[in-house]
Amino acid sequence: MTQQIQLTLDGSKEPSAREVNRLITAELKSAKRSAQAKRASTGAGLSVLERVQQRYKKNPKAQMAMFFSEFTLRAGTGRARPVSERTRTVYADELIRMLDELREIRAGVQDIGEIGKNHAVKLIKNWGSKGQAASTIQNKISILRRFLTFIGKDSAIPKGQDLKTWLNQQGVTAPVTRQNIPTESKAWDENQVDLHKVLAELRKESAITAMQLEVQAAFGLRMKESIQLNPQAADCGTFLRVVHGTKGGLPRDVDFEDEPVMREWQRDVLERAKLYAQQNRKGTLSLQGKRLDQSKAHFYYQCRKVGITRDQLGVTAHGLRHQYAARRYARLSGMGAPVTRNAPLIVTDEVRSADLAAREQVSRELGHFRPDITLTYTGSLPMMEKGRRQRIRDWVERTEENAEFQSAIKDAGVESVWMAGRFAMGLEVDSTEKFRLIVQTVSRQPLEGDARFMLKQRLMGMYDRAIDLSEHFEEGVPDDAFELMVR
Known about the structure:
Oligomer: single chain
Keywords: DNA integration, DNA recombination, DNA-binding
CATH architecture of the largest domain: Orthogonal Bundle
Domain Core-binding (CB): 58-152
Protein name: Integrase domain-containing protein
Distance between the termini: 79 Å
CATH topology of the largest domain: hpI Integrase, Chain A
Order of helices and strands: HHHHHHHHHHHHEEHHHHHHHEHEHEE
Organism: Polaromonas aquatica
Strand order of the largest sheet: 5-4-3-6
C-alpha cells in the first residue's frame, strides 16, 4: 500500500484525500481476494489428509469421516466463514457413499488420497448409467471436485464446457449439464393465479404468512429473506436493504420502482410489514419465539392449506420471485420477458442489447450478480427463438406432410392456405385454442356453404380442436401469416 501511494507522490501533483482512499480501498480489496484465494487454495487439506491416513491405514471410510471432522470447510462465497454443520455432514456422507460405489464397480481405494481423475470418470459414468438427474450428478461432481482440490488435485475434474469435452474423450455421455432455463413461466399472473385473492384466503389462516408472501411479491425476495427481514431497519427511503437470509450472506439493495402505482403498492406493503414486525421483539417478520426452521415450516404449511403448490394452484411461493423478475425485466427493457406471452416476436440487435441490460439489472436486484442466472426467471431469447421455430416446423409437418389435410384443402377448391395467429408465430397454444387458417379459392370467390362446413369438420377431426377459418380474396399474402404448401 505504501509503495502505491509513494508512486503517486512522486508526480508533480500531490494526491487528494479521495485518491489516497481509493488506493487504500483497492489494496484492502486485493488483500481480501488473496485471503479468499488462500482459504480455497489447492492442497489446503493436505496436512489433515496425512494425519487421517496415518490414523486409519487402509480404512478409507474412517479416513473420510475424520477428514471432515478436522478440516475447516470454508464457504465458497460471501463473508469469510466456515460452512454449517449440515453442509459439512452432506459433504462427508456423499463422499463416503462414493467410496462404497467405487468398491461396487471394482475401483475401490485403500486410502482417500488415491482418489483421482480415473475414479471421477468411473463414478460419473456410473451415475449416468443409473439414470440420475443432471442436477444430481452436477452436485456430486461439485463435491468431489472440491474434495480433490483440498488434497492437491485441483485439475482432476475440469469445469464448464471443458468438463463435457473431457468426458466425451473418456467415452462418457452422462448428463452433467443442468437445464435451468424455463420455456414456460412460473409467475403467478402468467398462470392465471390472482395474488390478492390468494392473500385474502391466506390472511384467514395466518396473517404473518400472508405478509411474508406479499413482501416477496413486492420486492422479489426469497422466502428466507422475507422471514428474516427487519422492515424498519431495511427501509432506506428509496430502496430496501436486504441483509439477512441472502444467498452467500451478500447484502443487496432493491430499489422502489419508478412506476407510480407499483411504487405506492411497495410502500404500502413495507409500512404494513413494519406493523407486523413490531409484534416480534427482534423487529423481524418471523414468528415470535420460533427458530428459523420452525418459521419456514409454518410458512410452507400455511401455503399448502390455501393451495399454493404445483399440484393445486399450479404455482409455488417462489413463483412470485419469477413474477417480480419478469415485471422488472419488462419495465427495464420495454418488452416482455422471453418466457412470457408478451415476448418480442422478432429478435433484432436492439432487442438483444435491451435484453442483456435488463438482465444485468434484474440479476443485481435478485441478489445473483450474474446476468446468466436471471435466465432461470426470465427465459432465454435464443431458446425462445429455437422453441418458436420448432413449433412452426411441427405445425408445417402436420399440414404440408399430411395427405388428409392436402385432400381436404383440394376438395374444397382451395388454391392457397396460410397458418395465422399464435400458430404462425410459433407460440405455445393449449388444446382450447382455435387453429387459425386463412384460405383462398381458385376462383377468388367465397367458399360455398357446404364446402366451408365440410372443410371445417374434416379439419376439426384431424386436429381435435376448433378451427378458425377465414378467407383471403385480394392479391398478395395476408398479414402476419405463414404460407403452407398445397401439393
